[in-house]
Every structure is written in C-alpha cells, then in structure tokens.
Specification:
By secondary structure, the chain is mainly α. The chain has a domain of 25 residues. It starts with 10 loop residues before the first helix and ends in a 6-residue tail after the last helix. The model has no long low-confidence stretch (mean pLDDT 94).
C-alpha cells in the first residue's frame, strides 16, 4: 500500500536526484529516485503535449 502525493520538482531537484542516482549504493534509495524521475518525465511529457494543443488554437501563440 502506498500514498500518492503532489510535489513541486525543480530542474535543480532533477539534476541532484540524477547525480545521487549515479553514486548511491542504497538500492531502496535508487528505486525511489528512479520512480521520482520516471514520474517527473511522464508528467512533463503529458503537460508539454497539452500545452502544445492549447498553443495551436491560441491566436497569440507564436508557433
């Protein structure tokens, strides 16, 4: 059983987690960092897609 949380993840957070993933020997921490980074990647892809869809129909968009 787990809980789902909403949290802000910054570019610096992603960079720090990526660096820690390369050096940590703690498998539990590795698994957790991988889940955070994967969830962040999925969310940003989803948001980018939605943002592009909105931009396509916005007459003020430059693209």
């Amino acid at each position: 059983m787990g809980v789902t949380i909403m949290m802000d993840v910054t570019k610096a957070d992603v960079e720090n987690l990526s660096q820690e993933l390369e050096v940590t020997k703690n498998e539990g921490l590795q698994d957790f960092i991988e889940r955070v980074l994967q969830a962040t990647d999925e969310f940003t892809k989803y948001m980018l897609h939605d943002a592009m869809e909105v931009a396509k129909v916005n007459p003020y968009s430059m693209g």
